[in-house]
């Protein structure tokens, strides 16, 4: 049995529609290539899927422009005129937008305000006030961040200073303790830059004096 005749109407199921488009597109392009080879025909084929995806084929060229140019020449029409007019209109719109923006920028710095009405001047003033609020808010945020950074740096410097001071005081305390053990008074240590020596007696020396004390030669540096 042969296949039944398919009714030509829009396929409602999206998946089936895409599958059918893919299969038939391949068949159309195959026939186009065969026609180009067999008959030496110049052919350009452009297709858009329902999702907007472009597929094109052009015989003996990477661009369809030569085929379109030949078509325009033979049909005496301009395929690009409407497109050119659209681009020209879009360019004019962009120029007008640019002109308005330049005028607004100039008005924000006090230029070109002589022809403004009272309501326009009041609106411009309000815009400047709002802009100033945003600028001040951003400035305060930056100042706050810089202040916090400075506080952290000062805190780190204070911690380093306190640590060095504690180490110095501990060192001085150890030196005083050694000096006291050696019989040297704090007054004999001198100022802060004086060298500190700790002395200890050597009780096992054989040359003790008769009075049971120690001589000068019996003192040893600790």
Automatic annotation (TrEMBL):
<dbReference type="InterPro" id="IPR036879">
    <property type="entry name" value="TF_MADSbox_sf"/>
</dbReference>
<dbReference type="GO" id="GO:0000977">
    <property type="term" value="F:RNA polymerase II transcription regulatory region sequence-specific DNA binding"/>
</dbReference>
<protein>
    <submittedName>
        <fullName>MADS transcription factor AP3-1</fullName>
    </submittedName>
</protein>
<feature type="domain" description="K-box">
    <location>
        <begin position="84"/>
        <end position="174"/>
    </location>
</feature>
<dbReference type="InterPro" id="IPR050142">
    <property type="entry name" value="MADS-box/MEF2_TF"/>
</dbReference>
<dbReference type="InterPro" id="IPR002100">
    <property type="entry name" value="TF_MADSbox"/>
</dbReference>
<keyword id="KW-0805">Transcription regulation</keyword>
<dbReference type="GO" id="GO:0005634">
    <property type="term" value="C:nucleus"/>
</dbReference>
<dbReference type="InterPro" id="IPR033896">
    <property type="entry name" value="MEF2-like_N"/>
</dbReference>
<feature type="domain" description="MADS-box">
    <location>
        <begin position="1"/>
        <end position="61"/>
    </location>
</feature>
<keyword id="KW-0175">Coiled coil</keyword>
<dbReference type="InterPro" id="IPR002487">
    <property type="entry name" value="TF_Kbox"/>
</dbReference>
<dbReference type="GO" id="GO:0046983">
    <property type="term" value="F:protein dimerization activity"/>
</dbReference>
<feature type="coiled-coil region">
    <location>
        <begin position="147"/>
        <end position="174"/>
    </location>
</feature>
<dbReference type="GO" id="GO:0003700">
    <property type="term" value="F:DNA-binding transcription factor activity"/>
</dbReference>
<dbReference type="GO" id="GO:0045944">
    <property type="term" value="P:positive regulation of transcription by RNA polymerase II"/>
</dbReference>
<keyword id="KW-0539">Nucleus</keyword>
<keyword id="KW-0238">DNA-binding</keyword>
<dbReference type="Pfam" id="PF00319">
    <property type="entry name" value="SRF-TF"/>
</dbReference>
<dbReference type="Pfam" id="PF01486">
    <property type="entry name" value="K-box"/>
</dbReference>
<keyword id="KW-0804">Transcription</keyword>
